[in-house]
Amino acid sequence: GVVAAAGAAATTVLPSHAEARIGLAQIDYASTRIANVKDLKVNEPLDVAYPDKDSPGVLLKLGKAVDGGVGPDRDIIAFSTLCPHKGWLLTYNAGDKTLNCQGHFSRFDCEAGGQ
Description:
Helix content: 10-25%
Number of domains: 1
């Protein structure tokens, strides 16, 4: 009786779907020049380390405007190249514009914000 009542109460309180919320914490880092826009080539990743040498990443000019893109064509994005799961190094696949984890076979779509 008690378990059934608790289950019934939970179903009336929980939302029908879950939705991620944008993080509320923000850390401000010093502005640092890491590349010249005119030197970036479409689909040729530039390895970067930001905000420090222990934070490897990649800067990409995708050749088409994307959400979150910067620069005059809104096609420049940057990502960490560390897998968020266990920290494996991600490698860029120019063919489908994804960052791939060799440890867990996860794939992150650079044109879709890394999803």
